[in-house]
Amino acid sequence: MEKSLLKLLKSEETTYDDYIAYLWKMSDEFQEYLSITNQKLLFKSKTLKIQPIPETTKPVQPVFNAGQFNKDDVAKILGKVNVPNTDPEKRKIQPMEPVTTHMKSTEKKLEQSKEKSNVKQTQSLSSSVTKVRDFSVPGVREAYHVSVDKSGRLWVNDRSGNLVQTDLQGNQLQKIQTSGRVAGYHTATQDGDLIYTDGGKKVIYRITPDQQITEFIKTRNRIPFSVHSSHINGDILVGMIDKVTRYSKTGKEIQNIQRDNQGQGLYSAPHNITENINGDICTSDIVKHAVVVVNKSGQHRFSYTGQGSGFDPYGICTDVLGHILVCDNVSKTVHLLDQDGGFLSVILSSQQGIKSPCGLCVDDENNLYVGQFVNSKLTVYKYLQ
What we know:
Blueprint: H1 2-34, H2 40-44, H3 71-78, H4 100-121, E1 125-136, E2 145-148, E3 154-157, E4 162-166, E5 172-177, E6 186-188, E7 194-198, E8 203-207, E9 213-218, E10 224-229, E11 236-240, E12 243-247, E13 253-257, E14 270-275, E15 281-285, E16 290-294, E17 300-304, E18 313-318, E19 324-328, E20 333-337, E21 343-348, E22 357-362, E23 367-372, E24 377-384
Antiparallel strand pairs: 1-24, 2-3, 3-4, 4-5, 6-7, 7-8, 8-9, 10-11, 11-12, 12-13, 14-15, 15-16, 16-17, 18-19, 19-20, 20-21, 22-23, 23-24
């Protein structure tokens, strides 16, 4: 009965996922019409003729009818366990193993931790943000989402599904046509691969440095929006409708995060996702209008909802100090938060030439790359010293 009910509910869930995907497609088409000079075409098109919400049925739940039995009846059927009336034997004491190897390993880890701590302490927030340079990315109309790989090269996509790899001078190295989505749907791995999602096919692909594309993960009935490759352990974090799923670097599903301690849903549409230095999973949810942060175990830590009357978070990233940087499409600024969600400052605004920030990425040299809705330029800033 449980399997039958689950099968029905999965079918219902798929129906609504498909309808939500249809609505996102309609939203993308609507955005396209906004850029047309003669906006009357919008009202003549089928874009405004939205299909009705699909009807679904509420399953009839089974009713449990309790039987009447007692402990002796169960014992007759299954038997029972008795403790033998014998004297217990003395345990044999095993000789202790040398602890030298373990101590050396512990000392080594402490030294490594100390070295990392010293590196971290050499960085601090600068008193001002400095623009280093900017360059146009060929092959894209806007720089919606930015990923940097271990070689320092960049991957950039626009809203039309163009995914381009470029060097730091703006020279195109690769171009891939994807299904496209207004989301952070690609990420570079520690091994130098690129991972990207295909929402229509509900598949996550891997591109190796020799440009071989393979199917990596199937998300079954869920549309994968955003993806991030952990720099801590190589896990793949995927934002989907109403949840975040963690996969191992080999593609095995190992964790699902959906609700807080009160049973409330954490996510609606986590369109951008990243990981902080302490293992926190940080998402920008454009439906909840919040940055939602959980720890590595999936426990809700905090939600950040901006500083004004409205907040529309898009691109999100973290840095070597554990700061969280997030774009706000309402105020057209980039906010800087501390590791616990405390607001520190508006780090970028129109004063620094920012018009509509949407893509963020920090490389190993602590350069901040910012992409915008309005053009295909990437602007590079220094904000740490």
